[in-house]
Amino acid sequence: MRKRLGLVFLFVLVFFMSNVAEKGVVSGETAKGMKKFVTEQATFVLYVPEGWKASEGVSGTFRTLFVTDPSDLYIAALFFGVSPVGNDLVALSSLFVNSIRNHYPDLKLPMARISPDRTRIVFDGLYTDVQQRRKEFRCWISMTDGNFLYSSIEAPEGKLSQSKALMLTILSNVRIMKGSFGTSPAPAVRMVEVRLHDGSASFQMP
User: Fold this and answer.
1) Given 39, 46, 109, 147, which is the most exposed site by the fewest CB atoms within 10 A?
2) Any residues with CB less than 8 A from the CB of 78 and at least 6 apart, and which?
3) Complete DSSP assignment for 151-167
4) Angle 2-19/160-172 helices, nearest 10 degrees?
5) Where are the chain's structural domains?
């Protein structure tokens, strides 16, 4: 199961990056000025600009990775694992969106698209954080055989476009260490909190 989930994740990650390719994104190689970073549990190896940091976590049936700049204004995130709502991409996406909206009622989604085969969703969001700062983000969620990959990039409103290539380069160069994949979900999973590194949002997830 570990090997299968690992292969599925790698396939989805490659597929994800091929569908969000942006001018300036450097995939498969270290961009100039990037430094190697190994997360605390050695689950992820990635390359980040000087001063940026990354933190990993485990939430029920999936793992999380948050990468932030020194000011905690720019965030790249990646979750992967077994979907807590089965092989239903719309339900999974709604779970994430509703969790964000519970914390930030002014959340707006100006754009959302789903692929014809209903395996990939992309949406944009705008909200005001706890420090009254306007933030914007783009999120991609992909699903294959009940396993999912959630990736997002976030920045102050009006600055996402100029920082997109950098954050997608970071995500495209994430490497998963051997043995870091979980197994199938248990019948009942305790709900736990997943919090953004800067404290600006948290999610109740299995």
Assistant:
1) 109
2) 64, 65, 149, 150, 151, 171, 174
3) EEEEEETT-HHHHHHHH
4) 150
5) 2-185
**Residue 60 three-state SS:** coil
SS3 19: helix
pLDDT tens for each residue of 135-169: 999 999 999 999 999 999 999 999 999 999 999 99
Total-model pTM: 0.75
The CA distance from 32 to 39, in Å, is: 21
CB proximity list for 154: less than 8 A, separation 6 or greater: 74, 75, 76, 77, 135, 136, 137, 160
Domain 2-185 -> CATH class: alpha beta
CA distance 27 to 14: 10
Sign of dihedral through CA atoms 165, 174, 116, 122? negative
Structure letter (DSSP) for residue 136: E
